[in-house]
Structures are given as C-alpha cells and as structure tokens.
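User: For my dataset I need records formatted as: sequence, then structure tokens, nothing else. Please produce one.
Assistant:
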Amino acid sequence: MPLPLLLDSNILSRVVRPEVGENQTLFAAVSSLFQDERFEPCVPEIIDYEMRRKLLHVGHHRHQGRKWALKALANLDKMAALGYLPLTTSAMRLAAEIWAQTRADGQSRAPEESLDVDVILAAQARHAGGCVVTMNERHFRKIVDIFDWRPYLPSN
C-alpha cells in the first residue's frame, strides 16, 4: 500500500505555478513523487480550502494577478484530480485533540482563536497513516511525521 503524502500549502502554492522559474525544481520533485508507486501524494481538503480561497480572492480583482491566479486555480484542480484527501469527522476530532494537547504542553502554533490549519493537516496525515510534505518542518515538529522531499529534487 502506498504511503499517503499530504502536500502543505507552502509546497502546493509553488507546484501550481510551475511557470515561475524558482518553482520549477520543486514542481519536478513533486511530479516524481506522483510517479513513484511507493507514494500517494494528495491535496488535503484543508489545504485546498486555504489555497483556493486566496486564489479566488485574487482572481476577482482586475489587475495583473488575476491571470496567474486563475491559471494557478486550474492547476490546483488538476492536482486535486490526481489525489485528494477529504476531511472527515474523525480527522477533525483528532485535530481538536492535538490542538488541546499541544496547548497543554505549551506548544501553541497559532493564536487561540485561529482555525490552525497546520494542526488540521497534521491530523489528516496521522488519520490517513501518512506524512506531511512541507518546507516548514518546525510547524509540524512533534505532531506528525514529515516526509523529506529534498532527495527528489532534480540534480543540477
């Protein structure tokens, strides 16, 4: 059974804009993960929400960002079609447990009134038996396994 790899927004936001020069190597790395049978990369529903709301917001404005936002939104849809992990009640309940435990341990990751997307993503990954693919390992330290994607970067 392939290992679920849940893409964080800091990875996915670059993958949906491969035309930007600095994003091309990361796009290649994530593409190779999709081709590797050992892994099952996916767009988590909470990350889809986080990215989609901002892309839709930028896309509603009449300025230069509109064109790239709409293109990135289409690419997000393509990525989600390749692999998508919906939120479940049990994952959200696990997120609430992780949130409460980390606060009790003095490890708050976001303001108390915030939704704390990182905790929800971590819970989704734990519930699916997978790992988070991120560039910000500090946000997930001690709450979920992190997948090291750097070995999949193309050689220079």
